[in-house]
Automatic annotation (TrEMBL):
Organism whose genome encodes this protein: Ruoffia halotolerans
Signal sequence annotation: none
Catalytic site: 127
Feature type site, description Important for catalysis: 167
Family: Belongs to the Glu/Leu/Phe/Val dehydrogenases family.
Recorded GO MF terms: glutamate dehydrogenase (NADP+) activity; nucleotide binding
Cellular component annotations (GO), alphabetically ordered: cytosol
Name assigned to this protein: Glutamate dehydrogenase
Source species taxonomy: Bacteria, Bacillati, Bacillota, Bacilli, Lactobacillales
Subunit structure, as described in the record: Homohexamer.
Pfam families: ELFV_dehydrog, ELFV_dehydrog_N
Amino acid sequence: MVNNYMTRVYDKLSKTFEHETEFLQAVKNFLDAIEPVIEKHPEYEDLAILERITEPERIISFRVPWVDDQGKVQVNRGYRVQFNSLNGPYKGGIRFHPSVNQSIMKFLAFEQIFKNDLTGLPIGGGKGGADFDPKGKSDNEVMNFTQSFMTELQKYIGADEDVPAGDIGVGAREIGYMFGQYKRLNAKTPGVLTGKPIPAGGSQGRTEATGYGLIYFLLEMLIEVNESLEGKRVMISGSGNVAYFAAKKAMELGGVVVSLSDSDGAIYAQNGIDLDTVKQIKIDNRGRIKEYIDADSDAEYFEGSLWDHDIKADIALPCATQNEINEEQAQRLVDNGIKFVAEGANMPSHTNAVKVFKENKLYYGPGKAANAGGVAVSALEMSQNSQRLRWTTEEVDEKLKVIMKDIFKQALDASNAYDLDHDYAAGADIASFESIAKLMIMNGVV
Ligand SMILES: NC(=O)C1=CN([C@@H]2O[C@H](COP(=O)(O)OP(=O)(O)OC[C@H]3O[C@@H](n4cnc5c(N)ncnc54)[C@H](OP(=O)(O)O)[C@@H]3O)[C@@H](O)[C@H]2O)C=CC1
Ligand SMILES: O=C(O)CCC(=O)C(=O)O
């Protein structure tokens, strides 16, 4: 970053929020990408565009007391970061994970502004969560916690104000409990949450949307260089919602998915993973990915990170969490033949890892663009709820394909316009920033 205005803004942020490392990382990545736009628009400095875009409209943080199965009172901290509502109601998931803190919430909400803009749908950017660990908790404990979380959160959300959904640790079970509690306390508005169970007003295809959308984005990356998924070896990390449905769609389209993982370790199956077994372990029984090797004698299990192992493959899809790939691991991917990286997770590649991808001319699809299918179908769920309509699986999937194709085109066109040689990460940031900056100017000083 050499532009003086940008440097001043970033330096101030990094002094004020020196402990918010993930937030600063997300902002720095973004500022580096949009530098040519700022160079073209010196008037943005007087309008304080960057100062305003990096400051959340508000951050809500709250106590979440609940009672565990032993009758002991536990206390967690909940958050909702309502970052930017220029495009519509704040929109973004809720994460339950022990690592949740203000920095992680702010980075996720910040990225959500631009991701949501890329979908072309009327949604602003937000994110929320709590430092609660659902792992190992009974259904009753998860329900107690989730009800207490919603008792506070419901004061700040609404179908036209802020519409949360799921993220790490928050799936259909948690959304169901949240929606139940919301309805106990408020009017019965299905549009207040997305990712709801279908009978409660959920959309067909939302559960699958992030993973499927990721593969639709990947297909566009492949088509652009006259390649296809047929026969390609695909490494996927994680084994949750995004990883599972990315694997399912990749296999349907001829890819060979050779790995999955969780926070304990990774499985590798040279000839491809059997997803029915994974479904039984992970979705039906909430088990650990290690159990897979009991069912497939050809598969191996490694403790620790998937990315520490030499696996020959063509495509890497990180679908677990932020900063899961560091610089050394990125170099290992390059050395093992990976040509395409598309991110199902949010910011899974450390800044230095992305540098390695770019230096080695990999085709790299950033999370902000590649994983936008989830929030896009959430916005379609909002549309269905407000129209009191239900679309079929086929209708939703068709719309998702069109949206992902368009997001890829926006990233490609912006990369071409600034002569950036297939830099889809910079392209996605530039395209969405140009649109948000215009909107900021139209709305006056707010
Ligand atoms: N759900 C959605 O619609 C969307 C999700 N995303 C992003 O995709 C990613 C995955 O989310 P999702 O699949 O919904 O979440 P899930 O909770 O369903 O699954 C998360 C997976 O990632 C693993 N994981 C989590 N934290 C770590 C860690 N610190 N190290 C290694 N593995 C880890 C989990 O393993 P374990 O069980 O051991 O914790 C689990 O396998 C996140 O980055 C999320 O923000 C992005 C867009 C939309
Ligand atoms: O569907 C949504 O609103 C949330 C999706 C999400 O959290 C994300 O895109 O990271």
